[in-house]
Amino acid sequence: MKKLLDKLSEQWKLKDSQNKKPTKLGYLVIVGLLGALLLLVSGLFTEQKEPDRQNTQQTQNSTAAETEETFAKKENEASSSTTDLEAAYEQDLVGLLEKIKGVSEVEVMVNLNSTHQKIYEKNLIIGQQTSEETDQNGGERVVEDENEEQQVVLVRQGDQEVPLLVETRKPEVRGVLVVAKGAEQATVQEWVVQAVSRVLDVPTHRISVMPKN
């Protein structure tokens, strides 16, 4: 670029020294040099913009990766929480069932739904609308429309509004398997089923009790 500027400067100096208008050839040379200069300047701007585009793309990719990582982390935390709760139930049941007469060497497996259930406070909004209608025979009638709508109650927490959490329910028990010595006796098996049903608040048809070898 510096060489092109030097050539342009020489052309103008030559014009001044001769104290006359440049020739047609001189004009062509100047125009050509100006065109080359514009191409070089345009190329420099393009090279400067290209890294900006790459940086923008990298930022977008990084944001997407962070979002996916956040969701994956939440899913893993929920899964870990459910697994820990299942293990706690199993341990408690083993200790409890082994205290039942005729029951020993107990093994328990508890299967829960994957997530906790959160209950939020809601407002019930009842709307009523009354309208009068006239039929073709001139008769009039009053029509009343009533509708109900529930809206989650929001409370301010710092700089944002969040739903008002009323209760967090533990995951529902989907099934329980108990394997123990002594369970081959019908009476003992019934005791085990009733004990598990009362402790976990689960229907008896979701509980299976098997004798252990």
From TrEMBL:
Residues 49-85 are annotated as: Disordered. Keywords: Membrane, Transmembrane, Transmembrane helix. It comes from Terribacillus saccharophilus. This is Stage III sporulation protein AG. It comes from the Bacteria. InterPro entries: Spore_III_AG. The chain crosses the membrane at residues 25-45. Residues 54-65 have a biased composition (Low complexity). The keyword Transmembrane helix applies. The lineage of its organism: Bacteria, Bacillati, Bacillota, Bacilli, Bacillales.
